[in-house]
Amino acid sequence: MLIFTLRKEHRRRLLALVLIILVLVLYRINWSGLTPAKMSRRNLGLQAESEDFTLEGEKFRIFGGSLHYFRVPKLYWRDRMLKMKACGLNTLTTYVAWNLHEPQRGHFDFTDNLDIVEFIKVAEEVGLWVLLRPGPYICSEWELGGLPSWLLRDPGMKLRTTYKGFIDAVDSFFDQLLSLIMPLQYKKGGPIIAFQVENEYGAYAKDPKYLTYVKQALLKRGVVEMLMTSDSKDGPELGYIEGVLAAINFKKLGPGLVSFLDKVQPNKPKMVMEYWTGWFDFWGGLHHVFKVDEMMEIVGDILQKGFSINLYMFHGGTNFGFMNGATDFNQYKPLITSYDYDAPLSEAGDLTLKYHKLRELFHKYIDRALPDPPPPLEKAEYKSIEITGYLPLQDTLQYVAQPISSKSPINMENLPFNNGNGQSYGYTLYETIVSSGGKLNSVHVHDRAQVFVDDKSVGILDYNIIEITVPEVQGNKKTECFSGKLWKGQLW
């Protein structure tokens, strides 16, 4: 009897020792390593009640990377995400490109390469959390910041405000988008742990009621996860909204943004929503390169301070079609098709020196082995193509739609095409008759226009060249302007 009692006491002590060891092990676990598949208890979600994020009450750090489904062929989504996971990241962030999902008002597309639900589910399968940035405006150096061009058919349109014509369109889009997204939230068993409200609105800030509208538009459609904003040094105060966690964007860490966060939300976790790993390229310019050592020093400083971070971009991809945007900060600069961004993954998805250095750094903060990245994908070599013939512009007109007559030029968005949605992208040929030479002046060309008289090129108008000389002509001559983008107003 005594022996039995001693053995029973021994078991109790042994069990107590095991429990103590288990508690110590759990305490040392870096909760950033938790994945969607390991989280069966889903009650609290991501919270910011102290200087650290928590997930289900446990300390959690966001190690994120930006990857946009609309810039990467669907075939490569999983490959890019596996490389993200192997780099030590635990969260994928993506924008939502409204203009692709609703190319015509009321006609929505969430299929094939726009299947955002599938994109998020692949992230979950790979073991990544998701931070969704649904806009409606996304910037991202994307055509009109992701806003559909048909919005501009409204002569009174005020983008990114509570103007009725704009918010009615946003409401319609959010109805469609969020009905698909809501089941993918963390508390409903999915991988989405947070949503961003608009994007860098502090730098725009045309309507003080607008951010509250976007916040409520998300909440009323069933968003139950954490909400965040993000702003750069250009107006973070104007981009802050009560009850939403403010995050910051930068390339080099300065005291101003951090002190702003300490002021508006003391004792809250600090989140770098966009740490710019490189930069985008402009037509006619050189490829931007951000030195690896300089980037690593800043990322190391961010992590050492205990901040959460999202690498923008982790993988840039490609601006397919006419989706490359432009900047206009005192000088108009269009982007190129590539969105390589000098990111840790190249445009082709290859590992770079930045990738390997970041992987080494993140591994130091994660108490577990990292998976190996997938092997490099095979590349195809395409031989040169010999051009044996061409069709002049004038000869193509017989194969296109009938011309539209107008007393003055119509900007492409208001052309009576596309089921009343206008022309979104591409080129427009404007034609008139002139009987003399002189100065042709236009401040309305917002891209580039080639001018022809009697099928002969006489010059170019663009955002810098607003006037050219048209030579004297004999009799009435056909004058044409082949334009990529014409704003509202007169051309001739």
How would you sum up this structure, described in words?
By secondary structure, this protein is an alpha/beta fold. The protein has 10 helices and 19 strands. The protein has helices at 2-28, 77-86, 98-101, 116-126, 164-181, 210-219, 255-264, 292-304, 353-364, 393-396, and strands at residues 46-47, 53-55, 58-60, 63-67, 91-95, 129-133, 192-196, 226-231, 245-250, 271-276, 308-315, 326-328, 332-334, 428-434, 438-441, 448-453, 456-462, 467-470, 477-483. The strands form 5 sheets. Strands 4-5-6-7-8-9-10-11 form an 8-stranded parallel barrel, surrounded by 4 helices. A 4-stranded antiparallel sheet has the order 14-19-16-17, with no helix packed on it. A 3-stranded antiparallel sheet has the order 1-2-3, with no helix packed on it. The longest helix is centred in the N-terminal third of the chain and has 27 residues, at 2-28. It is elongated, with a radius of gyration of 27 Å. The N and C termini lie far apart (109 Å). Mean pLDDT is 91; it is low at 1-6, 20-29 and 488-492.
